[in-house]
Amino acid sequence: xxxxxxxxxxxxxxxxxxxxxxxxxxxxxxxxxxxxxxxxxxxxxxxxxxxxxxxxxxxxxxxxxxxxxxxxxxxxxxxxxxxxxxxxxxxxxxxxxxxxxxxxxxxxxxxxxxxxxxxxxxxxxxxxxxxxxxxxxxxxxxxxxxxxxxxxxxxxxxxxxxxxxxxxxxxxxxxxxxxxxxxxxxxxxxxxxxxxxxxxxxxxxxxxxxxxxxxxxxxxxxxxxxxxxxxxxxxxxxxxxxxxxxxxxxxxxxxxxxxxxxxxxxxxxxxxxxxxxxxxxxxxxxxxxxxxxxxxxxxxxxxxxxxxxxxxxxxxxxxxxxxxxxxxxxxxxxxxxxxxxxxxx
Amino acid sequence: xxxxxxxxxxxxxxxxxxxxxxxxxxxxxxxxxxxxxxxxxxxxxxxxxxxxxxxxxxxxxxxxxxxxxxxxxxxxxxxxxxxxxxxxxxxxxxxxxxxxxxxxxxxxxxxxxxxxxxxxxxxxxxxxxxxxxxxxxxxxxxxxxxxxxxxxxxxxxxxxxx
Lengths: 345, 162
Prior knowledge:
The structure holds two protein chains of two kinds. Chain A is of the alpha+beta class. Helix content of chain A is 32%, strand content 26%. Chain A has six helices and 18 strands. A six-stranded antiparallel barrel of chain A has the order 7-8-11-10-9-18. A six-stranded antiparallel beta barrel of chain A has the order 12-13-14-17-16-15. Chain A is globular, with a radius of gyration of 36 Å. The N and C termini of chain A lie far apart (81 Å). In chain A, 25% of the residues are buried. Chain B has a single domain, classed as Arp2/3 complex 21 kDa subunit ARPC3 (Orthogonal Bundle), CATH 1.10.1760. Chain B contains six helices and no strands. Chain B has helices at residues 9-24, 38-49, 56-70, 76-95, 100-125, 136-158. The longest helix of chain B is centred in the last third of the chain and has 26 residues, at 100-125. The model of chain B has no long low-confidence stretch (mean pLDDT 89).
C-alpha cells in the first residue's frame, strides 16, 4: 500500500477528506466508492467503509523467516566441527554412533531383505540333481581337507613341542564366529562393509575379520546388532605383514581398489619375488600372525626412487564373499581385556 | 502459526526413510558413483515447502544419522545438510516460484557447494577422493529433481501436509 501522506496531515488539510480513514483499531480502510487503494482519492466521506481484508495464513508463512537462522546455522556448524574433531582424534563418540546405529539398522535390514530373499529363494528352489552334485563335491572337499588336517595336527603338535623347548608361547587356535555381510552400501571411495554381528555377539573395536581365503579387514564401529568393517584395501588401512618365504617385514597399505595392496618402504634391493605369499606378521597386535594377506603380483624397480613399488593381490575375495569370520585371537588377551570383552569363549 | 497444528508428519518421515533406504540400496559397480543425493534432495524439498517445520536442526540430525549409515566421520554429512537447509531457508521465497528446470540448476549448485565442503573435510582427514566421479551425484540429482519435486508436491497436497 502506497502511503503518500500521513492521516494527520490529511485531516489538518481540512475541507476535503479522503475516503480513507485511519483508526488505531482497524488500520487503514479502503474506499468503497472508487475501490482505490491510493490515498489521494479525495471525496466526501460516504457511508460505506469496507474493512481491509485480513491476510491469510498462507501468505504469512510466505514471509516467515526466523531472524536467527544465520546464528542457528553457525551454531550447528560449530557443533559439527567439534564432533568431527572429537570423532577423528578420539573414540569417545563410539557410544553415540552405536546408539544411532540402532536407528539405522532396521533400514539396512529392510534394504538387505530383497537380496536375502533372493538368496533364500534360489537356495530353496534348486533341483535335487544339483543338490546331489553339490553334496558329492563337498564330500570330496571334506576328504581332502581332512587328510590335510591330519598332517596339520602332527605339525601343530610338533610346533608346540619345539616352542616349549624354546620357551616361547604362541597359540594358533582362535575362537571364530561366522557373520554375514549386509547388502547395503556405504559411501563410495571408502572400502567398508556392514556385517550382521555386533556387541551382542561380542564383537569389539579393532577385531580382525577374515574370509575363507585370507584377511579381509577389521571392525571399526560396533553397534548392538551390526558392525562396520574397514577392508584392508581402504586407502586409510595399513597392515603389518611379512613374506612367508623369508620373513621380510613390510606394511601393506590399501589403494582403494579391490584387487591391489601396496607394500610400502621396501628397499630396491629387498629379496622379494613375484608370486611370494604375504602373511600377517602380528606385529600390530590387532591381527594374529600367519593369516594369508595376498600374493605379490608386480614389482617395479625404478632406480630413481628410494623404494621399490610392490603390488600385492589380496587373497580374500573382497567383492564376492557373503560370509566372513570374526576372530577372537587368544594371544591378544591383554587387548581383549582392555576392550572389556571376555577372552575365553 | 502457533495456533495451527502440524499435519501429516508421517509423510515427511516416510519420505526420509525411503531416501535413506535408496542411499543404502546396492547398485551395480558402474552406477555406484552416480547415485543421486537422495536425502539431500528430499531435505531441500521439505525445507522449501515447509520452512517453518523442517529447518537447520532437523537437517543436522538427519546428517548425523546419514553419517552413521555411511560410516563417515560423525558430523561430516551433518555439516553439509545443515548448509543445504540454511541456503534453502534463505532463498526459498525465490526458488519456490522458479520453473522446474531453473530449480534443478539451483539444487545442483547447492549440492556442489555441499560436496565441496565434504571434499575439504576429506582432504583435511587425508583421504581425498581419487576420481572426478566424486562430483557426479550433484548432476544426477539435478536431472532427477523435477520428478522428485512433482512426486513430493503431489504427496504433500494429497495428504495435506503443512
